[in-house]
Amino acid sequence: MATAVASAGAKSVKRDIPFSWVGLDKKGNRVTGKSLAPDEPALRAELRRQGIAVSRVKKQSNAFKAGGKVKPEDIAVFSRQLATMLASGIPLVQSFEIVGQGNEKPAMQKLVLDIKQDVEGGTSLHEALAKHPLHFDDLFVNLVEAGEHAGALETLLDKIATYKEKTEALKKKVKKALFYPAAVMVVAVIVTVILLLFVIPQFEELFKGFGADLPAFTQFVINMSRWLQNNWYIFFGIIAGAVWTFVYFKKRSRPMREFLDRITLKAPIIGPIMYKGAIARFARTLSTMFAAGVPLVEALESVAGATGNIVFEDAVLKMRDEVATGQRLQRAMENTGIFPNMVIQMIAVGEEAGALDTMSGKVATFYEAEVDNAVDAMSSLLEPLIMAVLGVLVGGMVIAMYLPIFKLGAVV
């Protein structure tokens, strides 16, 4: 099953109604697709120009038009597709038409076609992209602007695509590292709450007929179960309030984010992964910006925001200020006190040889591999830890419930 796309020679029209369609191509193969067009006749005419005999056209709901969410992975694919189109000699506006109409995600399709309309109206590409800051950050826009000025837009888009693909892959690895321990805690809490609410009360009814004092550990677990049954709304309210407060202040309070970033870097197991990930993003962004011909001082400003950690962001901004006054990048990195000696020495070699982009790219590749290995090692380490945590919780409650039975058996 294939998806047809608009032809390069298609007329530029405003496409504001989503349709899905089914038809046969020139070889008689069944093809389907989703397209935006002003009306059904215009869509059928467009598909006929592509050699597709349409058998069924269906107007989609508004949910289709606004459906889906543009993700960073979509932007990376868009960059790669656009770079390939331009490298093949296809004009920019037609490249947007092809990429937009060929995208399965309606939200991404609308974004691409909106940018195409701005470019058709005479707006430069980097200005059109800057109108969508949620999807195209300053780094992306600056690189595209550099490509437009240098007349090498397809080359810069290819570098952007490579950069986005590598950084998104790194983000997934770091998220995996954070998700694993969080999942352990969530599962542990859920299992404990279920036992306290539904299992322990059954044992409590059984123990009422014993006519003897219960062991202290058993009584403690039963008291905890009673409290949770009577005050479950307080318990869940506290958890919900704590989560909401954490998320709220994490988004809006820079001191809070800085505190969390510092704690995260020093945390066992997770800390080294976050540290190496920040260095990898620093080096990858620096390599991409410098290779694009962006001046070092300007590049460092974009690099600071791309590190993903406020501690590194502040350090890179300090480096930028020192480099702006004539300091060498190597010396500025040493003054921050957070970069490993190996990274500093490789950057120094790159400065001396005039190959800063190449050396920082090698640093990024090395630390990306380090993050990958660290995440795999952590996964292997946490598997028995999960079993241990759940075993202690569940096993502890089981022991607490069976202690009175053991005690009764000893008396008999």
Topology of helices and strands:
Blueprint lengths: L1 E2 L13 E8 L5 E8 L2 H10 L3 E7 L2 H5 L5 H16 L4 H10 L4 H15 L4 H6 L7 H13 L2 H55 L8 H15 L1 H21 L1 H13 L3 H22 L4 H11 L3 H15 L4 H8 L4 H13 L2 H56 L1
Parallel strand pairs: 1-3
Antiparallel strand pairs: 2-3, 2-4
Total E-strand runs = 4
Largest sheet: 4 strands, mixed
**Main sheet: which strands, in order across?**
1-3-2-4
Task: Please bin the fraction of helical residues.
Answer: over 70%
Uncertain segments: 1-16, 62-66
Q: Give the N-to-C terminal Cα separation.
A: 74 Å
Please count the helical segments. 17
* Element pattern in H and E: EEEHEHHHHHHHHHHHHHHHH
Q: Supply the helix-strand structural class.
A: alpha+beta
Mind telling me the C-alpha Rg? 29 Å
Give the rounded overall mean pLDDT.
81
Global geometry:
flat
Share in β-strands: 5-15%
Write up this protein.
The chain is an alpha+beta fold and 412 residues long. The protein is built from 17 helices and 4 strands. A hairpin with a 5-residue loop joins strand 2 (17-24) and strand 3. The longest helix is centred in the last third of the chain and has 56 residues, at 356-411. The protein has a 4-stranded mixed β-sheet with strand order 1-3-2-4. Helix 3 (72-87) packs across helix 4, helix 3 (72-87) packs antiparallel against helix 8 (153-207) and helix 15 (329-336) runs antiparallel to helix 16. The protein is flat, with a radius of gyration of 29 Å. Helix content is 74%, strand content 6%.
